[in-house]
Amino acid sequence: MKEKILRELKAGESYISGQELCQKFGVSRTAVWKHIKALKEEGYVIDSVSNKGYKLVRCPDVLTAEDIKSSLSTTWLGRTVKVMKTVDSTNLEAKRLAEAGALHGTLVTAEEQTSGKGRRGRSWISVPGQGVWMSFVLRPDIELENSSMLTLVAALAVEKGIKDAAGIDGRIKWPNDVLVNGKKVCGILTELSAQMDELNYIVVGIGINANIGQFPEEVRDKATSLLAETGETVDRTRLLCQVLKHFEQDYELFKKTEDFSELMEEYNGFLAHFGQEIKVVRGKDEYICRSEGINRRGELRVVDSLGRTQEIFSGEVSIRGIHGYSV
Amino acid sequence: MKEKILRELKAGESYISGQELCQKFGVSRTAVWKHIKALKEEGYVIDSVSNKGYKLVRCPDVLTAEDIKSSLSTTWLGRTVKVMKTVDSTNLEAKRLAEAGALHGTLVTAEEQTSGKGRRGRSWISVPGQGVWMSFVLRPDIELENSSMLTLVAALAVEKGIKDAAGIDGRIKWPNDVLVNGKKVCGILTELSAQMDELNYIVVGIGINANIGQFPEEVRDKATSLLAETGETVDRTRLLCQVLKHFEQDYELFKKTEDFSELMEEYNGFLAHFGQEIKVVRGKDEYICRSEGINRRGELRVVDSLGRTQEIFSGEVSIRGIHGYSV
Question: Are residues A102 and A232 in the same domain?
Fold first, then answer.
């Protein structure tokens, strides 16, 4: 009910009378008043004026389950959501929930991760209250070998979610980093559990540097935030919800063919270095190729100086611009 | 130290003097006496005779870490072992340990599983104290796509471990059940965790019906135990250790080529229905083929009535004898 009232307040441009809310939801004036009081306690600034009613002035800069649910436009993704103040890592929590039977689409988000992880065990800095740190559980009925493409679906969703919520164009650094002005604003860590060749569940972890003001010296040339790039604070709930909206839509397109047939073109449109020279780093080897974008399998097609085409899929390969990390 | 004394007692045919133990391990008489006392408290029957020393009469029918460690002949498998009275499921516990960083080879075993699982979420009956219910963590540096073969390595190890410990010949029902006299004595559930196409860890769960006296009516035609088939109680610690020994050896052979090149022949020698007609059940479809054994990839080669060869790898296929479950 609180969530419904919040949704109504968010939708309204001007004041909504208590009477109207009572009638709409079939509850008493006292009930409405109690929910409004609870929302205020959570940090929502709600103006109450006699004979006019209620008006939402500002949402708190904290993530709440009601706020997320009332802003979500998805059908199944994030419909069950666990919001935490602090957690070791949202991926670990999502995996724990999945092991305990959590349903397809279950979402975990936290203000703070005390041991957030990036790929290959690298640590991920998640400044409390300044990012979107979230993980969700998927239980797709797809072949195990196709599941790694979901990490590219996530990158695409983040790209579009950032555009919606912060009004800024990012680029995807294959396979699944999102860059703004050449620096990383988002990392994605997708993990899976399987009973041998049968998929059990997938956890997609997404960390977006939303409102981080400053980065440590040593990462400043590689990492940035939406705040740093736009000069404006982004509404984290809206960002989170837009990413989930796009993920759900793109996931359905992916599921049709279990590949990137329907998403390849859009993904390549956002791809950093598309048609340009890149440096492919494989262990100690490095070589220069031209990036031709991803194929239907989500593999990166590259052409070397002799015109030979290669399709890169290994997790051990990393891509750089020829002049450094991203350029 | 307790473990070393136990190993010494196990190795000795007759009495070993306290003096001998003191000298061998460089500890005091009091220390030896305290360890012997502790072992007795754990259920070991140790005869102590003045002027002769100690003799191990009987090991308790409980699994203990000392007992397992003193009987193990492996290099890395089971060298870290957690023995529990009861657990929800040894696979779940092993996964929890793995998530917390447990090393390659870490073993979990329990007297009882309160919610033991078989493949596809089926429940697995684990009678307290009457079976070998164990799971171990592997962190192999292999391709994700090759990891499903480890479940066949486990079946092979169980087959040979049973032969060693119970002196009885089993058969492997592809991919990973072990049958004795046509009934199932062992189930294997192998699970993996990956960061997309990079393997994180594998948990191999093995349940062996060792000393179960009676089965519920409804499974009696499909399930059996070593006790039921041989009429003799099997030493569970020895069984567990023999299975681990074979697994470690066969795992090293598997690792060389990341396939069954070196194990295929032995596996096929133990395969139920090798060269015979079998029923392949795929969802609602059933068809009769001749089994030609596994190939290097661990896939089952079958030939249909028109002479066409197929290689079966899907987890959705199940194999039956043409006259029922196993015959």
Answer: yes
Whose CA is closest to B108, among B123, B126, B119, B122? B126
Q: How many CB pairs under 8 A join A and B?
A: 57
Among chain A residues, the shortest Cα distance to B100 is held by A92
Separation of alpha carbons B140 and B255, rounded Å: 8
Within-domain flag for B299:
yes
What residues does B188 pair with on adjacent strands?
B206
A117 and A165 housed in the same domain: yes
User: Do A183 and A255 share a domain, yes or no?
Assistant: yes
Give me the interface pTM, i.e. the ipTM.
Answer: 0.73
Residue A35: Cβ-neighbour burial (10 angstroms; 0-12, 13-18, 19+): buried
List beta partners, residue B108: B82, B135
The answer to whether residue A133 scores a pLDDT higher than 70 is yes
Residue A223 and residue A109 share a domain: yes
Residues in chain B closer than 8 A to A313 (CB atoms): 197
- Is residue B326 in some structural domain? no
Tens-digit pLDDT profile for residues B159-196: 999 999 999 999 999 998 999 999 999 999 999 999 87
Residue of A nearest to B101 (CA): A121
Residue A115 annotated in ligand binding:
no
Strand extents, DSSP E, A181-247 = 183-195, 198-209
Nearest to A191 among B92, B148, B195 (CB): B195
Count structural domains, chain A: 3
User: What pLDDT was estimated at residue B185?
Assistant: 95
Q: Are residues B46 and B81 in the same domain?
A: no
CA distance B266 to chain A (A): 22
Range B219-223 average pLDDT: 88
Mean pLDDT, range A246-269, rounded to an integer: 97
Mean pLDDT score, B38-51? 85
If asked whether residues A40 and A22 sit together in one domain, one would say yes
CB contacts of B145 in chain A (<8 Å) are 145
Q: CB under 8 Å to B109, separation ≥6 — which residues?
A: B63, B68, B81, B82, B83, B84, B90, B132, B133, B134, B135, B240
| Closest CB to A315 among B99, B193, B197 | B197
Residue A90 lies in a domain: yes
- Flag whether A148 is marked binding: no
pLDDT at B61: 79
Secondary structure (3-state) at B71: helix
